[in-house]
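hey team, just a heads up i'm posting the complex here instead of the shared drive bc the drive is being weird again. everything in one block, sequence lines first with there labels, then the predicted structure for the whole assembly after. its four chains so it's a bit long, scroll down
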Amino acid sequence: MKSEYLELKRACYEANMELPNLGLVVYTFGNVSAVNREKAVFAIKPSGLPYKDLKPEDIVIVDYDNQVVEGKMRPSSDTKTHAFLYKHWQKIGGICHTHSTYAVSWAQSQMDIPIFGTTHADHNTKDIPCAPPMSDELIAGDYEHMTGQQILDCFSEKNLSYEEVEMILIGNHGPFTWGKNAQKAVYNSRVLEEIARMAYLTLQINPNAARLKEALIQKHYERKHGEGAYYGQEGC
Amino acid sequence: MKSEYLELKRACYEANMELPNLGLVVYTFGNVSAVNREKAVFAIKPSGLPYKDLKPEDIVIVDYDNQVVEGKMRPSSDTKTHAFLYKHWQKIGGICHTHSTYAVSWAQSQMDIPIFGTTHADHNTKDIPCAPPMSDELIAGDYEHMTGQQILDCFSEKNLSYEEVEMILIGNHGPFTWGKNAQKAVYNSRVLEEIARMAYLTLQINPNAARLKEALIQKHYERKHGEGAYYGQEGC
Amino acid sequence: MKSEYLELKRACYEANMELPNLGLVVYTFGNVSAVNREKAVFAIKPSGLPYKDLKPEDIVIVDYDNQVVEGKMRPSSDTKTHAFLYKHWQKIGGICHTHSTYAVSWAQSQMDIPIFGTTHADHNTKDIPCAPPMSDELIAGDYEHMTGQQILDCFSEKNLSYEEVEMILIGNHGPFTWGKNAQKAVYNSRVLEEIARMAYLTLQINPNAARLKEALIQKHYERKHGEGAYYGQEGC
Amino acid sequence: MKSEYLELKRACYEANMELPNLGLVVYTFGNVSAVNREKAVFAIKPSGLPYKDLKPEDIVIVDYDNQVVEGKMRPSSDTKTHAFLYKHWQKIGGICHTHSTYAVSWAQSQMDIPIFGTTHADHNTKDIPCAPPMSDELIAGDYEHMTGQQILDCFSEKNLSYEEVEMILIGNHGPFTWGKNAQKAVYNSRVLEEIARMAYLTLQINPNAARLKEALIQKHYERKHGEGAYYGQEGC
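-- predicted structure starts here --
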């Protein structure tokens, strides 16, 4: 089985298989993709295939216009959302979508997740945005394509940078996350789930809990991501 | 040990063994059955046997009138409920009953589970019905038989189709689910538990959370189950 | 290592080792004992020994007056409570004490656990009693001995039978459970934890949730424990 | 690879590896250190290294003035907090920092954890303190160093002894725990997480739950830690 996409499929496969291990999906609820910018294609999980049955060769290669380039199976039903984001956000290398419990519960609440602590600020400086459900007209149209548009619109309206905030909740649906590669996108899904759970518990313990103050937001974000960052190892 | 029901017993056994693996039962709390429509019998877990001790040959074969056709052990105490449903709902192939934590908690609350998101709409378009507890007269009578009647009455009163909504909560008791086969019935129990958990969390985060709007309910259900469904692989 | 208590120690050891497997204890939080009525002694876990280090030969043999009969280690700090119960309740064969999360949380709330559903009624027909904290004088006295008295007093005041209700919460402390043998005592601790969790969730979903009605309480308890019981296998 | 710190690194490594096993960390969220008082150095986890990749030789040796004594990797970004505590609290042998779910949620609520039961009193007699966030000036300065100062100030203001209360919450951040060695510091993090979870659940079940009364606090603490302690084995 010769293919010029073996490495891309492997990276996509491994990132997908992280999801059940991390407790982020049951059955077929979720999908991860990995892009190859030079070839302008991305690898994505086939639709409706249980993770326990997934093999690297099942991964489907698709271009930014949703055309299957290689693969015998039908790609994820969310493929058009992935394609839309890859087309518009040139610097992302991977995308992850799950129905993880706490992130979905916030999405079903149609509420942004407030930044309550340093666990959140270690990853970005904003409340995690929750995009409002799209209009009935758009739903009836090219739904998954418009989900990509919905994400872009939400980031535009809230004046967010996709390079800083690598996660969003789609109202009444669930989370999408992304990053420099598929592995980082999955990492962000796991982090989002934990942030969502902690924020939920915080409001149960103290309904009047205050947002993290700006000085701490900046301090924690900068020590990990700023110019003088000193978190982690050199070159990591 | 010759038997014309070996395959049926095996399918029933394997579906039962999924329950502890999926975290849906402790000890003996639950049972799955699988029907053979041609022979008009179903296979069901023996009563009160811990899952860790269960073997395929322990599975009991019963007809629609609750008579044991094959097997040395006493069938599940809920056998009459299974028989009733198989008799009245010709298109189901498997039934599952558990005492899973979140589904039971909604049942104990005597509340339908509102449809809050696409995770729910991917499986059906209605609130998950909770049947009110039966009258004292019926409880004192043929209780497990009448539990089947209770389920049918609830679907009739709420104008639901058992082919679309493959799950119900029995008030103060717990969930029953079904499907084209035993494996699908178990799948539905796992999905119901997740939906129940997410709906609980949603109401904790936002007590005024709104039901999913109709356009999204239809979109998600149709893309997976409608005529032009494009979720999953061809023929799956 | 000759001993006339090898079998008793083994039964006690195995019941203790169930606790971490069932998620009911962390570190050293809990203890199980098993009685031999003929010899009028019981076997109990040594105090403060982590479960991962526990071996059958570490189990200590104690009589009903708290005297160590065999064993090199100090018995559980709760030994006097076990001894007291064995002395006063002739028909029990095992006792289990844990600090399991949900049972402790109800104990810290100083509230009985209401009987909300059939999962509860399958095991007994009463709210799970929570004994109020003992007086300062008794605490300063023979505390663990008086904990036994506290349990008896609570059952007496609430007119409960220890043969039916095999579990109690000690206010601000945690659960004690018992049964015909040590294994059943552990089973009851696991069941109590699940009942406690479901009752907590039920009240979160519906703060006005009603107790299970009497007809259902009796039906479920009787079908499992009554004269005409048909749950489980003959002779089990 | 010769080193005079092999044993210290090994102890630090093993304590760190307990964190993912105990469910207290995901990815790189947390760090444990172990001190050698004679050599006046401590061993600490490298910054940003996933636990699954951690090896004993990666552990970094640092002195009380934050200077790396041995090791190729950058030490934890929280190193200065550890150094500060080792310098000021002569009797501690290990320190642990995590972002465990329930402890962080209380920290994000900026609330002390009330002492509601004996599980808590078995470990100390006080509410678990939550230090208020530091001033913007201090955050902008030597943040991790000042986190140590923040901890000392909180203990001073609340008149607490670090030898009795071996845990604190940093407001909006998360828990630090310590003990006679690194293993005990990790033990305290696990215990704190359980206490935090039980206190949360207690307030959900009974918002008016009362603190444990003083006689029980003293009784449980003294039987485990007092002069006449009888919990555990001699010399343990």
